Amino acid sequence: KMAAAAGAAAGLWSEVNRCGQNGDFARALKSVNKILQINKDDVTALQCKVVCLIQNGNFKEALGVINTHTKVLTSDVIAFEKAYCEYRLNRIESALKTIQSASQQTDKLKELYGQVLYRLERYDDCLAAYRDLIRNSQDEYEEERKTNLSAVVAAQSTWEKVVPEDLGLREATYELCYNSACALIGQGKLHEAMKKLQKAEELCRQSLSEDSDATEEDIEAELAIIHGQMAYIMQLQGRTEDALQLYNQIIKLKPTDVGLLAVIANNIITINKDQNVFDSKKKVKLTNAEGVEHKLSKKQLQAIEFNKALLAMYTNQADQCRKLSASLQSQSPEHLLPVLIQAAQLCREKQHAKAVGLLQDFAEQHPANAAEIKLTMAQLKIAQGSVTKACMILRSIEELQHKPGMVSALVTMYSHEEDIDSAIEVFTQAIQWYQQHQARTNHGCCVFQPKSPVHLSLIREAANFKLKHGRKKEAISDLEELWKQNPKDVHTLAQLISAYSLVDPEKAKVLSKHLPSSDTMSLKVDVDALENSHGATYVRKKAGKLTGDNQQKEQGQGEVKKKKKKKKGKLPKNYDPKVTPDPERWLPMRERSYYRGRKKGKKKDQVGKGTQGSTTTGSSELDASRTASSPPTSPQPGSGAAVSATSNVIPPRHQKPAGAPATKKKQQQKKKKGAKGGW
Fold it and tell me: Is 521 inside a domain boundary?
């Protein structure tokens, strides 16, 4: 029996070997199972079974076999297969422990170790692992290792903003070109990145066209990720229409990569913003596909969740927005976006005070991020009309107090509130900050340094502001400080003299001696050339040569002009030199103090009475003076155009009866026009 069993086992092993060489792992697995029926603890058979299951994609079953036979399949024997199954089942932490617990680090384990570190986003360790592999390996997989190495560098540039080092890799494949483009995008070099992607597309087409089995659809599917990155660059460059068109083309191809689809859908949502919400709601479903969380980095997944919360806010799903933002805040308590989304949602619900309180609590709990939060709080206060409170919040941001932009904003806001003292105080504090940080200590002594351009600019702006608002004495001290820094600055000296002339004229005279003489100030300018230049607004006409007769005429006209005397003004006919002229004679009659208005005669009041021209309209409505003084009104919906204050309304006495021939003519003209063109 034992001999028969041994013979059967030998035949089965031959079958396993033949099937393995042919790649028929399903049949090989059947033969291995028969061997295990003969000897269930056969280590080689168990190993072969695990390999067959892995080749068939049954990672969970393979891991079950390993865990069931731990006594036989020790970590030294099956470490790689166990770690690989855990890696494929997205149990990355478990795979890392399995690799680290192995007694011997084989090349296969090192390769897998690099992949695991990449998935865990431990890019520095991953880079070291791949460098070690490339240095100590010589086989046909060298190109793949270099591709993985370039992918790590690209990830560092994109997610950690690390300036990538030049690895000296020859970009002979489209994968290497693509990774190089990703690294350039991380550095913000979009134009160069686009060129790399175009080269990657060309190399990809060449590579796949050499494969006779590859169809055009296969080529487009492989190019999808390259085109997706191209569209992303277009989006960053502001070419949103081109980006949107390319994104939609990729979605129509229905690529199998759920990670790629999720990223493209997210980018389309960011382009749509609060517009085209229906399309965004359809696209967001692509981000919820199964397995997306294993295909994307943590920052990519976080960005998608942020956009889901914003989309919920734009679609008025308040509860969903709060739920998503609260979940994001629990995952990343120090992140700004979740609390900003919550505050935005509260503002949409008109709960501004609650939004400000929420931001205030966050700023107190996370001082490192307080500056951005306080800027948002100030914006909310300005929206509510509380400009002074907004200024108080802005002034509490110590790291921004001295910045020129902040100083400018505060001064503008205080000026709007007519709080000039506070505006000047802002200038003073900023100038003092620069004075404290400008001096440097050398062996306990303060060494003088020239003031920085920003410091001098603030002093000048402060002086101009004080002069504008009548604070001349305060402005003088600032101008003197500026002149002390640059005694050759004529503009500052002129401002200083101007300010002193209003306060201390004698001092202004003394300072005016420092002004350069008119000779040194004169500029050697050819006036004729300047006036006749291309950009001159006035060009003097060239005077032609005068002939003898013309010259005499010109001289004669000149003499006449010189002799011409000014005519005396004409006096009124009823002028009496003995009578004092009316002091109000220059005013219109209605504006004079003694004007009592025109007396209305009885006949004027009775206009319109009688049988002829009788109307039911009151005299007040027909009073042209009242119509002229009343403001024009907007036309009601469906009415004609508004009549202006100076309307050309025909007075009642000239108004023609309803059935007058002129009216009929007008009606006929309208009918003709309608019949002609159908306007």
Answer: no
Q: 480: domain CATH number?
A: 1.25.40
Structural domain span for residue 476: 435-514
DSSP string, 557-597: HHHHHHH--PPPPPPPTT--TTSPPPTTTTS-GGGSTT---
* CA 337/CA 317 separation, integer angstroms: 18
State yes or no: pLDDT of 7 exceeds 90.
no
Residue type, 588: P
Distances from the Cα of 325 to the Cα of 104, 279, 344, 559, angstroms: 46, 22, 11, 91
Task: With respect to residue 79, please indicate whether it lies within any of the assigned structural domains.
Answer: yes
In eight-state DSSP terms, residue 91 is: -
Q: Which of 466, 491, 514 is the last residue of a domain?
A: 514
Domain membership of residue 120 (yes or no) is no
Domain count of the chain? 2
User: How many Å separate Cα 494 from the centre of its chain?
Assistant: 43
- Mean pLDDT, the chain, rounded, equals 79
* 440, β-bridge pairs: 447
The enclosing domain of 66 has a CATH number of 1.25.40.10
Residue 447: what are its φ and ψ, rounded to 5°?
-95, 125
CB 478 within 8 Å of CB 512: no
pTM over 0.85: no
Q: Is residue 519 part of a domain?
A: no
Which of residues 104, 121, 147 is at a domain's end? 104
Q: Tell me the per-residue pLDDT of 530-582, one tens digit each, with 9 for 90 and over.
A: 777 766 555 555 555 555 555 555 555 555 555 566 666 777 777 788 888 88
SS3 157: helix
Quick one: the chain helix, strand, coil %, rounded to 5?
A: 65, 0, 30
